[in-house]
Amino acid sequence: MTNSIVPDIEENASRCQCPLCPTYNECMEYDDQRLFCSRGNTECNLDEEGCICGECPVWKEYMIKSFYYCRSSLKI
Ligand code: SF4
Ligand code: SF4
């Protein structure tokens, strides 16, 4: 359960840029994880290799401010 202002809808999932991100890894790809700013962080281990949320149309539309939603619990 999250308190995100970003709706967990297919339109947002399809616009999510996470699969193009250098931090996105095989573990996250395995079950097509994405939209972490709405769904919360991953259980996968990861290395921070950069975050491209700032280039994402969802990030811009909802005027969220943080990065690395895949890693941390939500800080919008
Ligand atoms: S802001 Fe980041 S986590 Fe949220 S949809 Fe965009 S790329 Fe994905
Ligand atoms: S939340 Fe940011 S760091 Fe994590 S996969 Fe998405 S774009 Fe990359």
In the residues, how many domains can be counted?
1
Task: Specify the number of helices.
Answer: 4
What percent strand?
under 5%
Major pleated sheet = none
Structural class: mainly alpha
| Mean pLDDT value | 93
Name a few traits of the molecule:
globular; 76 residues; binds iron/sulfur cluster; 4 helices; mainly alpha
Characterize the structure shown.
- The protein has 76 residues and is an all-alpha fold.
- It has one domain (1-76).
- It is built from four helices and no strands.
- The longest helix is centred in the first third of the chain and has 6 residues, at 10-15.
- 28% of the residues are buried.
- The model has no long low-confidence stretch (mean pLDDT 93).
- Bound molecules: iron/sulfur cluster (SF4) (2 copies).
- One iron/sulfur cluster (SF4) is lined by residues 17-18, 21, 23-24, 36, 51-53, 67-70.
Secondary structure topology:
Layout: H1 10-15, H2 26-30, H3 36-39, H4 57-61
How would you summarize what this structure contains?
The protein is an all-alpha fold and 76 residues long. It has one domain (1-76).
